[in-house]
Amino acid sequence: MSGMNKQGRPTSLAGTGSGGTRETFTGNRALHLEEPILFELDNPGACGVDLDEPEEFAPRLGNFARAGRIGLPSVSEPEVVRHFVRLSSKNYSIDAGLYPLGSCTMKHNPRLNEKMARLPGLGDVHPLQPVKTVQGALELMHELSHWLKELTGMPAVALSPKAGAHGELCGMMAIRAALIARGEDETRSRVLVPESAHGTNPATAALLGYKVDAIPATKEGRVDLEAFKAKLGPDVAAIMLTNPNTCGLFERDIIDIADAVHEAGAYFYCDGANFNAIVGRVRPGDLGVDAMHINLHKTFSTPHGGGGPGAGPVVFSEALAPFAPLPYVVHDKDGFRLVETEGDAKADGTNPFGRMVAFHGQMGMFVRALAYMMSHGSDGLRQVAEDAVLNANYVLASLKEDFSAPFEGPCMHEALFDDRFLKGTGVETLDFAKAMIDEGYHPMTMYFPLVVHGAMLIEPTETESKQSVDLFIATMKDLARAAKSNDKDRFTGAPYMAPRRRLDETGAARKPVLRWAPPAPKQAAE
Question: What is the b/e burial string over 326-354, where b = at least 16 CB atoms within 10 angstroms of the residue's CB?
Fold first, then answer.
């Protein structure tokens, strides 16, 4: 027996297959409340504020004057609050449970950081304030720069990049500036990128006009050293390499790679997305890195996602330090100030490639990152890396009997599995991920890195307790055994218990509906 509820959504008194639930007239499920989109809540005349009627005036818009409503929903204040609170309950977050996304490092954001970011003078600082009124903010940026340089073993840092890909662009633009200064910008046109790299690496190189040359991996999941050396030549500008790499493995030949790159006259750009795995343990500068971006949201706990603002500082070696972008903070006898122009920079002894952004614009991220560093100290940051690696290896060792790992040996901060354990079950990686939703988990990173078929990349981070990881492991084992026991319906129809059932994700990506339109009025029966 089925019909439509009062919100126009189908109802059914029967379950919906494995894990199915009884539907209701309202579309609500006890405390799980159904929620339409905001436009469907439109109630002409409703408003969150009372506005006085305007005095008589002579309009000056002529034919451009608005003749009717502009299509924005009219909603009262309580309805607005309820709408967004209900929507928030449909989002999975790190505050709700373990977030196993590999490569993304979804770690807990300490509330102390949030308190610091809201302090007067930091939470309300404005980029156009006179320098003498923001000495504390500039000192904080200078202090953050100091510790980023200390942790990486690099002499210079640019704080202005907004996130990882922006940081990659910054680092590669500094490399290009260095090549221009050497008169080799036209002859060095090729950038080497391992096949397991983040997709933003080759995209960044291509954006700057470089030809991307892929480096294959060995059966161990690391850069093929001999293949790499064979690709070196006088036309190579740089290598863009991630360490630990996107397979969750440390590149053991990193120093040999750096030495070979430098001997060929090129530069070494390191993707710092996985710095959380080695912070306090390894300094990239000691490995021969020339430039590396740092995702503050991954390593230093600033909020991840949400549309920004983000922060992806870039550290530079001595060879690239003079080319770091404007603006940057200096401390002299007159206090703290920003070097804003190329003239000031040249007087300061540097030759910046230019300016990436109008303003830094992410003071809250700087405050949170520095609060994280100061509260942990050097021993605490070292423990961050150790616990992240310990948790990932615990997951890898615990799941090896039920899952299939593409590479032998321990991992770093994330455990990588492939889909061989699902062979013959009729269950795909996507089906497995959807079933995880019914169990209350956000799926792990799927189908990445691309070098592993049906990849499942799991990063528990250091902020998960053993109890939390144990429950996750037990759940994953149960799902794996169900798939092998021919309980196919549990997977191919999942999720059953989410606010929405499985979507046609390919169709949604290729034919997105980006504009809401009111439903057509129903015709009266004749």
Answer: bbbbbeeeeebbbbeeeebbeeeebebbe
Which residues have a Cβ under 8 Å from the Cβ of 15 and sit 6 or more positions away? 21, 22
What is the Cα–Cα distance from 83 to 18, expressed in whole angstroms?
30
**Helix extents (H) in 126-221:** 135-152, 164-181, 200-207
| pTM summary value | 0.89
CA distances from 2 to 15, 17, 22, 391 (A): 11, 15, 11, 47
Pull the structure tokens for residue 377.
């100290």
44 within 8 A of 69, measured Cβ to Cβ = yes
Question: H-helix or E-strand containing 482?
Answer: helix 466-484
Q: Which two tokens stand for residue 175?
A: 């490399």
**Which amino acid, one-letter code, is at 14?**
A
E strand map for 399-446: 415-417, 445-446
**What is the mean pLDDT, run by run of 10 residues, along the chain of 526 residues?**
48 45 76 88 87 88 86 92 92 92 93 94 92 95 98 97 94 98 96 92 97 96 96 98 96 97 98 96 98 96 79 97 96 93 90 93 94 97 98 98 96 98 97 96 95 97 96 97 96 91 90 87 64
User: Which residue from 192, 153, 138 is spatially nearest to 315, judged by alpha carbons?
Assistant: 153
Residues sharing a CB contact under 8 Å with residue 234, sequence separation 6 or more, in sequence order: 187, 188, 264, 265
Which residue type occupies 481?
Answer: R
155 conformational bin, left if phi > 0, alpha if psi -120 to 50, beta if neither = alpha
CB 437 within 8 A of CB 498: yes
Q: Could you tell me the two tokens for 331?
A: 């401390």
Identify whether the C-beta of residue 268 lies closer than 8 Å to the C-beta of residue 262. Answer: yes
Based on C-alpha coordinates, what's the Rg of the chain? Answer: 27
Q: Where are the alpha helices (DSSP H) in 182-249?
A: 200-207, 225-231
Structural domain spans, the chain = 112-370
Number of Cβ within 10 Å of residue 390's Cβ equals 16
Task: Could you please state the CATH topology (level 3) that the domain comprising 112-370 is classified under.
Answer: Aspartate Aminotransferase; domain 2 (3.40.640)
